[in-house]
Amino acid sequence: MTFDERVAALAPLGFTPRQTRFLVTAALHSGYCLRRQYLAFAGVRYGKNVRDFLDALVRRRLAQRFRYQPNRGHIYHIHATSLYRALAQRDNRNRRHVSPALIARKLMLLDYVLTVPGGAWYATEEDKVALFTRELGIPLGDLPQREYAAMGRCGPTTTRYFIHKLPVYVAPDRAVVHFVYLVNDETGHGLEQFLHDHVRLFSALPTWSVVAVCPRGLNGLPACRTVFDRFAATTWRPAPAEGIADVRWFFARRQLVERGDLRTLSVADINRFRDARQRFASAHMEALYGAWLAHGERALAQGNDRAPDIPAPAAQLVLHELPSTYSQFGSWPGVC
User: Fold this and answer.
1) Which residues 6+ apart lie within 8 Å of 336 measured at CB?
2) What does residue 152 show for φ and ψ, rounded to 5 degrees?
3) Is the Cβ–Cβ distance between 46 and 39 less than 8 Å?
């Protein structure tokens, strides 16, 4: 469903179009919201219409209202099953009650989303998969993913995409895809993992941006800059001059493994593959493997022989500090 289709799906609730658009935005990106966030979204001051809207959400059991500190404003949790079902998101985790730290993270994300009102936002796993595979033509295998074993021994594994559950948006000109990353540490380790998980997708895009969003009071943005600059400088290097035969062997066997075609692999091959996978576990090799899948041997050309039609993507890091500290949820929201 598109955003406008979801707004239309909630029209029977009887709220104004602006109120309905806020409900869809808050439900998809956070599940939790504050009165000030609705005021910012609607561009209005607090008054009877705002109070009636928020009271109606509670009265009709679409949302629960509560406080964490008596001297702070109310928090609204949009949790109604009927509302999420109408959005084609019956199992969306935003319906669940979560810890104060996670509530803070959700409110941070919504705060940033509201700063880009003109963007086309993709919040759910299904929406992001559709954006990259259907609209941008990127193979499903290039998306960040993780396999989860079934509860029973004989059940099939489940593949989930975009496991960080962070939103993506595209500006009106559709030229650049922006990946939102929520900073919750001062070391940059979280961003480093995020970049590594997305490297195949980054390699498939001609240009992209990561927006590092950090609450005021958490000094996490300098480390993000250091991590990103190192990632951008080292990931899209040419193939290594030494050991290129091993790289070719590993890529060919990895392709077989990912296709589920293990019939041609001996026990020795499987053991060698496992060792090679550990040895080649780097963002550089992930990017090179993605290029090899797309361009074949040209991706492994070295130095001046590297194919000119395989350029490195244009990458950018945007640092964004939120004006709030979210101190009512703890000293370092989102860490625990």
Assistant:
1) 99, 101, 330
2) -90, 155
3) yes
Return the number of other C-beta atoms located less than 10 Å from residue 1's C-beta: 17
What is the SS3 assignment for the chain?
A: CCHHHHHHHCHHHCCCHHHHHHHHHHHHHCCEEEHHHHHHHHCCCCCHHHHHHHHHHHHCCCEEEECCCCCCCCEEEECCHHHHHHCCCCCCHHHCCCCHHHHHHHHHHHHHHCCCCCCEEECCHHHHHHHHHHHCCCCHHHCCEEEECCCCCCCCCEEEECCCCCCEEECCCCCCEEEEEECCCCCCHHHHHHHHHCHHHHHHCCEEEEEEEEECCCCCHHHHHHHHHHHHHHHCCCCCCCCHHHHHHHHHHHHHHHHCCCCCCCHHHHHHHHHHHHHCCCHHHHHHHHHHHHHHHHHHCCHHHCCCCCCCCEEEEEEEEECCCCHHHCCCCCCC
Residues 83-130 pLDDT 10s: 999 999 999 999 999 999 999 999 999 999 999 998 999 999 999 999
d(CA 172, CA 192): 29
The reported pTM is 0.88
Could you give phi then psi for residue 216, rounded to 5 degrees?
Answer: -60, 135
Residue whose tokens read 């939103």: 167
pLDDT more than 90, % of the chain: 62
**CA gap 113, 29 in Å, rounded:** 8
pLDDT digits (tens, 9 = 90+) for 50-94: 999 999 999 999 999 998 887 788 999 999 999 999 999 999 999
CB 185 within 8 A of CB 220: yes
Indicate the residue type of 206.
Answer: P
What is the CB neighbour count within 10 angstroms for residue 151? 6
